[in-house]
Amino acid sequence: MSVVVSGQYVAYSFYRVRPEWRQLPVDEREAGKDAFADVLEENAPRFDTLNVYSTTGVRPDSDFFLWKITQRYADLGELGAALNGTPLAGYLETPFSYLATTRASQYTSARRARRITPFGSPYLVVYPFVKVRPWYALPEADRQRAMDEHIRIGGEHPSIHNHTTYSFGIDDQEFMTAFECDEPADFMHLMLTLRETEASSYTERDTPIFVGQLLPARAALDRLDGVAAGVEA
Amino acid sequence: MSVVVSGQYVAYSFYRVRPEWRQLPVDEREAGKDAFADVLEENAPRFDTLNVYSTTGVRPDSDFFLWKITQRYADLGELGAALNGTPLAGYLETPFSYLATTRASQYTSARRARRITPFGSPYLVVYPFVKVRPWYALPEADRQRAMDEHIRIGGEHPSIHNHTTYSFGIDDQEFMTAFECDEPADFMHLMLTLRETEASSYTERDTPIFVGQLLPARAALDRLDGVAAGVEA
Amino acid sequence: MSVVVSGQYVAYSFYRVRPEWRQLPVDEREAGKDAFADVLEENAPRFDTLNVYSTTGVRPDSDFFLWKITQRYADLGELGAALNGTPLAGYLETPFSYLATTRASQYTSARRARRITPFGSPYLVVYPFVKVRPWYALPEADRQRAMDEHIRIGGEHPSIHNHTTYSFGIDDQEFMTAFECDEPADFMHLMLTLRETEASSYTERDTPIFVGQLLPARAALDRLDGVAAGVEA
Amino acid sequence: MSVVVSGQYVAYSFYRVRPEWRQLPVDEREAGKDAFADVLEENAPRFDTLNVYSTTGVRPDSDFFLWKITQRYADLGELGAALNGTPLAGYLETPFSYLATTRASQYTSARRARRITPFGSPYLVVYPFVKVRPWYALPEADRQRAMDEHIRIGGEHPSIHNHTTYSFGIDDQEFMTAFECDEPADFMHLMLTLRETEASSYTERDTPIFVGQLLPARAALDRLDGVAAGVEA
Amino acid sequence: MSVVVSGQYVAYSFYRVRPEWRQLPVDEREAGKDAFADVLEENAPRFDTLNVYSTTGVRPDSDFFLWKITQRYADLGELGAALNGTPLAGYLETPFSYLATTRASQYTSARRARRITPFGSPYLVVYPFVKVRPWYALPEADRQRAMDEHIRIGGEHPSIHNHTTYSFGIDDQEFMTAFECDEPADFMHLMLTLRETEASSYTERDTPIFVGQLLPARAALDRLDGVAAGVEA
């Protein structure tokens, strides 16, 4: 009984290069970045989206992450295996990885699972989200009213695009919340406003929060050792 | 005074290969995977079940896990020692391991410890589970009613098979909850529905949640370095 | 003003060998295990008990642990230093270590610190224990009644032997709870029953829970690299 | 719709050198410190502030941190990449990093985002801050009254300068609280007094707390291996 | 406006040697211990107290710690840098470090910051301490009454010496609680009694708890590799 029709798996995988990789000769590092970028390029056609976001210089625990969207679960494992086969994988840690899937929202009039289609904004803010259990015991009308307020405030920030997906039972969070935006400070102002809403008071956990900068794969990898940093600046 | 008659020990052991293993020559890696798979094959006859599930590309903290079911506790230690004797063990971390045992359920009419027999579904979702203490102070009838609702909803998803076992006092969780399913998104929908039940409000902890893909041992190990990934895709 | 008369220090030290130790030549590994076992044998006469329990194949975070009982605190530091002098110590981590001491129980009629004397059962279940603070504000009669129930249920499982000791102020837990038993599943059934008692509702923390298998020192160490695993099976 | 006009990004990045770096020959260490200090010097003109604070000998988890203030988000990633290109980066961990931005305070009469301009005091105390959610449900007048008390007490300590910024939605904390002071003990007395205020009772988290000593970049780096420690003392 | 007159900074720094240090030739280890002990000896005159306590064989996460008392904050950084310059520092981790300062107690009639002067007892029990926020909302008379009870019970254990200091705002805890005693079991009995007091019910956190054995620097370092363990026993 599969209730997902043409749904999508939406995953975020975070990578951190071990410092000792930076001690390798520059040509070994170049070859490692080339092979990793090549695997991403080869696999991209099988994915609805396969974007790379840099967190270099901002997050302490990761250097970049992948936003992976596909209709076929097995793509996630096969891409993971292919990346494991590159020389860079001998020095990569994966501090975080999040799995979610799409469904029709309870709180909008949509009747089909929303298809996630990134806008390609320069920044993506993404975080795992868990509500306190009493939220789920509220009457549906109360939840609807609280979410209506959320949606209304979000609508006042048209440059910010929400791509929330569902992780119940398939990962440690309930939702993966993702927002594309033009400038991180804009998103801070939206969240500051939402903090006073009723729905916000039912938040159990909404961290870690990651701000990624959309970059071509090779440019994001170049930030690992700063080799091309002067050029792209 | 042993009250378990023909009960089973049910354990889940998670493995992560250190990134530096991927720097080894390919034949060393092949030999390591061969020896590990051989030990599993040799030990399988002593176990009721000895399945391998891959988490490559999905979980950040593990690459694969074993589902081990046996009537003899010592089998767990002896298998662990034998795996420690393989070359791969010089590079393996064990980020998680969970121990449980079977008993007759309080909430169904079964009078004997249920025998855990996997269906061989393509995916296994497994997580440790702890209820808040007030749950145990509820009258038995209340707990029965709450569990009846849970069981009824589960029954509406016949492709999802529940294999819950008991860890009280022998591991850090109270239960090990395990569900076989045909597609991870199906399980998300079941869990989303269960989140609104009364029993769900007594949850203290139900993470980490692992989605494993059932694979032959060697295929799961090949995902560690992507060597055969192109072939199996 | 020393109020302990012929009391005992009771400590549990957990060890995990780093995976790279398994990459050493077998004779180096043998020498390391020999030296470690020799130090234990030489120091055993100064301790009331110096037992070795294996957790190989079951716990993710340790391979074996020592149950150390002595009337002289300095023995703990001196044994630790002597073990640090063995070649195995160049590869050992100590993920957990717990310190406790004996005293006369408040809840039985004993007037002297109970002397801890292991029965030598095949399994030892041990975990740190903390009660919620309101427990300590209950009238003594209420606590006595709650503990009486605990003790009565324990008495119905004569094959399970309790060796609880006190850690207030000398380690991070309040108690070290230790139970010897013949079979881990038996202990699960006792704990499942106790979960419904009044005293249980005052539990703040009772993890991690370790199940150790009593083995001769050398046999427990052999499980680190599986060298003699085939023989002992 | 960007609501920040000439706002600033304010970030704190913490570094810890791996112990094995200290095993390198002294001239390799000198070259690593030189290159790291050079990158800071070259990038400083693009930042409003780029200060270095030492935590050597005080914090267990970091050796020094950067206080980075800029109007251009991309500067953070580019500086991170450039530092990744230095030899020291082959041995550096980044245990913490915090991101914030400026805005007009709700609780003062300022109408524009306050511009953060450090005084150059010898010490900086900085910590991430999260309020409990009920704070945000208080009427605005109540919050104003509570903050007035905070601000009044702060005003009685004129040698302590507050530089609080906003992290809602762009990092794991709500605020980054930063105070410049002449002597760490002075700040302890201020905080002890604030602990009794009404606003303080709404604190969810205010740790880790870092006390940094402002030093020239090269002097802070020299504390990593004590090479010039005798000279500066 | 400095309100501390002749106050002291009181810090505790914990060290753990990496296991691989134990693989070094014995003369390299000796030289490392010599240099570390020499730096302590050279710096001792600048400190009011610079004691070394061993935790070998007892704590899982540290081998020894320093109790550092000085009137000059910069001494902490300079000692840290000098220790970083010794060969042992290439293998040392610092799992914990705590910073505090003295002030006049609110709860005794003292009007000046109490000067911390260790008695030189054989054992030091030290832990970070945080009270729940409602404590600070209690009327001063209630807090005084609760602390009077604490002080009275402490007074009944004259062999135990309390050296509590203040960390508000300069480290993650509120207080550093330190007790010198003649025997760890004595301190357990005091803490067991205090657990039933009113003040105890306002405890938010009082772990980790460390029991250190006062030793000459070189003897504490010798416990790292057990070289002189046989001699000192």
In a nutshell, what does this entry contain?
Five copies of one chain form a homopentamer. Chain A has 233 residues and is of the alpha+beta class.
What does this 3D model show about the protein?
5 copies of one chain form a homopentamer. With about 230 residues, chain A is of the alpha+beta class. In chain A, strand 7 (about 165) and strand 8 form a beta hairpin. Helix content of chain A is about 30%, strand content about 25%. In chain A, strands 1, 2, 3, 4, 5, 6, 7, 8, 9 and 10 form a 10-stranded antiparallel sheet that branches. The interface between D and E is large, with 48 and 48 residues.
* Number of DSSP-assigned strands of chain A: 10
Mean pLDDT of chain A: 92
- Structural category of chain A is alpha+beta
Q: How big is the Rg of chain A?
A: 19 Å
Q: What share of the residues of chain A does DSSP label as strand, in percent?
A: 25-35%
Number of helices of chain A: 7
Largest interface: A-B, 48 and 48 residues
Q: What is the H/E order of chain A?
A: EHEEHEEHHEEEHEEHH
Which quaternary structure do these chains form?
homopentamer
Major sheet attributes of chain A: 10 strands, antiparallel
List keywords for this structure.
233 residues, alpha+beta, homopentamer, 26% strand, 10-stranded antiparallel beta sheet, 7 helices, disordered N terminus
Topology:
The structure is a homopentamer of 233-residue chains.
Chain A: E1 9-17, H1 26-43, E2 49-54, E3 64-70, H2 74-84, E4 92-101, E5 123-131, H3 134-137, H4 140-155, E6 161-162, E7 165-166, E8 175-181, H5 184-194, E9 203-205, E10 210-214, H6 217-222, H7 229-232
Antiparallel strand pairs in A: 1-3, 1-4, 2-3, 2-10, 5-8, 5-9, 5-10, 6-8, 7-8
